[in-house]
Design a protein that fits this description.
Radius of gyration of chain B: 23 Å
Number of strands of chain A: 0
Largest sheet of chain B: none
Structural class of chain B: mainly alpha
CATH architecture of the largest domain in chain A: Orthogonal Bundle
Helix content of chain B: 55-70%
Largest sheet of chain A: none
CATH class of the largest domain in chain A: Mainly Alpha
Shape of chain B: globular
Oligomer: heterodimer
CATH superfamily of the largest domain in chain A: MetI-like
Structural class of chain A: mainly alpha
Order of helices and strands of chain A: HHHHHHHHHHHHH
CATH topology of the largest domain in chain A: MetI-like fold
Number of helices of chain A: 13
CATH class of chain B: Mainly Alpha
Distance between the termini of chain A: 18 Å
Number of domains of chain B: 1
Helix content of chain A: over 70%
Shape of chain A: globular
Distance between the termini of chain B: 33 Å
CATH architecture of chain B: Orthogonal Bundle
Number of domains of chain A: 2
Radius of gyration of chain A: 24 Å
């Protein structure tokens, strides 16, 4: 490896800069963990220490006792899993056709992918809200699932399209000679070969749904149906000023599934973002 | 997160000798897309030209530019527009330079960079709501920032950064930078790694200093990706909602009320769907103008 820093001073400067970055990125996360283990009494001190004086699990007990944490965790799991599955299921045929040909349909789909990314959320939020009411789906998990499928679909299609393009077309041609139809080819040949891509697309759609908040805020009123992010805002966030401990504990717990998934997916995400043009 | 870089390449499929797939297999998949995405998007644009209101949506009537004239004369809209501009450009620019610096460091041969790399991704994995609450704890009256400042002898006498008229917006911008840095850094790092090593070495052998190497070798390679990610960042940042909703809900006194928060309260607090949709249309046009400006910039660079 070559380095620019031929001087000692330059090298030290770089380590200092890197240290400052690490501090900036890590300090808030460290603080979140620290606060979640502090006792209520300690949190009322005028100045706080970085490390809890006597660490306690009280905050975690409180959130399970007083808040519908388990219910909302289940809601998030149901909604995220169902919408991620839907997104991959619908995204695969679209991505397949987009990977293999250029027609009016693929051009229209391209326009839709770009348009849906460019338009602000509020533009689709209001009419979708009205549509959900008209369909009788207001305040249901089904509404969230539907919305999240459509919402995560553009990115899923984009990633899967790139993935399917790397699969040689000869296998399909051979299958076509054996008189397999397009659906059979998609399920029997493309599906298995694109499996790693499908899994990544699924996990991203899952994370997106898990993180979403705006739609849940507008569509869900019933506390028993609230996903995690909404539960955080509605219940624990309301008295955030007074009860920092439980807030920190609940926030930490709701970020953990994502942190784990991200550790696996990081590299894939870059490839998805860059459309395969740069190796991450 | 659901976005794509290099939009211009989309749809350019290399000539295949034979395509066997029938385009009709997309029809079952496109139906829900049309019902739940295309139709609402188009209707959303149209709603911006109507007087649609909560409870009277059925009787909504086309009212031309009325909503826009109303916005034009609303000081609240202009305030939120100004806040949105400071937020949008502030976060995009700061985030870009912060990420570029980090990406350059991560690309250099330093020890412990794995640590920085791992940490750099963590904010990305966190739900925006959780990011919001994390930083509320940092900015609280006895939070990380004030506690650390007082430990080194600086008493800010601050009652919490997010409740200060002056500090709330800068504080929120810092959170925006923090939350978006991972993505930008990782993309820029991927770009940096695609710069051929031989070129850098050759330049250095010719006696070029680090800045000169960056300007003459690295930047020309990085330029396209840098502009693409900066454009996308602007779109994401300008349209963000959850983060600031949790941090300040637009307060204090509207000093952090982004256009999206303004649109949300118009539509869902006051039930003025038409006005809310109209704000969405205005934001779309602003976004489009900025994106076109960015694209023009990158095309001009290509011609050189």
């Amino acid at each position: 490896m070559t380095t620019y820093s031929r001087t000692r001073a330059g090298r030290i400067g770089k380590y200092i800069a890197l240290g400052l970055y690490v501090l900036f990125l890590a300090a808030p996360l460290f603080w979140l963990v620290s606060v979640s283990f502090k006792s209520n009494a300690e949190l009322f001190d005028l100045t706080q220490s970085w490390i809890p004086r006597d660490p306690t699990l009280d905050n975690f007990i409180v959130i399970f006792d007083e808040f519908p944490l388990v219910t909302s965790l289940l809601n998030s799991l149901i909604v995220s899993t169902a919408s991620a599955a839907g997104s991959v299921l619908l995204g695969t045929p679209i991505a397949y056709v987009m990977a293999r040909q250029r027609s009016l349909i693929t051009k229209g789909t391209t326009a839709w992918i770009l348009g849906s990314q460019m338009l602000p959320f509020i533009t689709i939020l209001v009419p979708l809200f009205l549509l959900i009411i008209r369909l009788g789906l207001y305040d249901t998990r089904e509404a969230l699932i539907l919305v999240y499928i459509v919402w995560s679909l553009p990115f899923a299609v984009w990633m899967l399209r790139n993935y399917i393009r790397s699969i040689p077309v000869e296998l399909e041609q051979a299958a076509a000679l054996d008189r397999a139809n397009s659906f059979q080819i998609m399920f029997r040949i493309i599906g298995p070969l694109a499996l790693p891509g499908l899994i990544v697309a699924f996990l991203f759609a899952f994370i997106q749904a898990w993180n979403e908040f705006f739609f849940a805020l507008v569509i869900i009123k019933n506390p028993d149906l609230a996903p995690l992010s909404l539960m955080l805002v509605r219940f624990i966030g309301n008295d955030a000023g007074v009860r920092m401990g439980p807030l920190a504990a609940a926030s930490l717990l709701s970020a953990i599934p994502n942190l784990i998934l991200f550790a696996f997916l990081q590299r894939r995400l870059v490839q998805g973002l860059l459309g395969g043009s740069v190796r991450g | 997160m659901s976005q794509t870089v290099q939009a211009g390449r989309l749809g350019r499929v290399r000539d295949r000798e034979v395509t066997v797939v029938s385009p009709w297999i997309v029809v079952p998949a496109l139906l829900p897309v049309i019902v739940f995405s295309v139709y609402p998007l188009l209707q959303g644009i149209y709603l911006g030209f109507t007087d649609a209101q909560s409870g009277a949506v059925g009787s909504a009537e086309f009212n031309g530019l009325d909503n826009y004239l109303q916005l034009l004369h609303s000081p609240h809209f202009w305030d939120s527009f100004r806040v949105g501009a400071v937020w949008g450009f502030g976060v995009t620019v700061l985030q870009f330079f912060a990420s570029l610096g980090l990406a350059l460091l991560l690309n250099a041969d330093l020890r412990f960079r794995w640590l920085a790399r791992t940490l750099a991704i963590a904010p990305w994995a966190m739900p925006p709501v959780v990011v919001g609450y994390t930083w509320r704890l940092v900015y609280a009256e006895n939070g990380l920032l004030n506690s650390t400042l007082s430990a080194v002898g600086i008493d800010t006498g601050n009652t919490g950064w997010l409740s200060s008229d002056f500090w709330a917006l800068p504080a929120v911008i810092v959170v925006g930078v923090w939350a978006g840095m991972p993505q930008t850094t990782v993309v820029l790092l991927a770009g940096l790694q695609s710069v051929p090593h031989e070129l850098k070495e050759a330049a250095m052998l010719d006696g070029a200093g680090p800045l000169r190497v960056f300007a003459a070798v690295t930047w020309p390679h990085l330029r396209a990706i840098a502009l693409a990610i900066a454009t996308l960042d602007f779109i994401w940042i300008f349209n963000s909602f959850g983060l600031v909703y949790v941090l300040t809900a637009g307060g204090p006194g509207g000093s952090t009320r982004l256009p999206m928060l303004f649109a949300y309260s118009e539509a869902f607090t006051y039930g003025n769907y038409g006005v809310g949709a109209a704000i969405g249309n205005v934001l779309t046009i602003i976004t489009a103008v900025v994106v076109i400006a960015f694209l023009a910039l990158s095309f001009r660079g290509d011609k050189r």
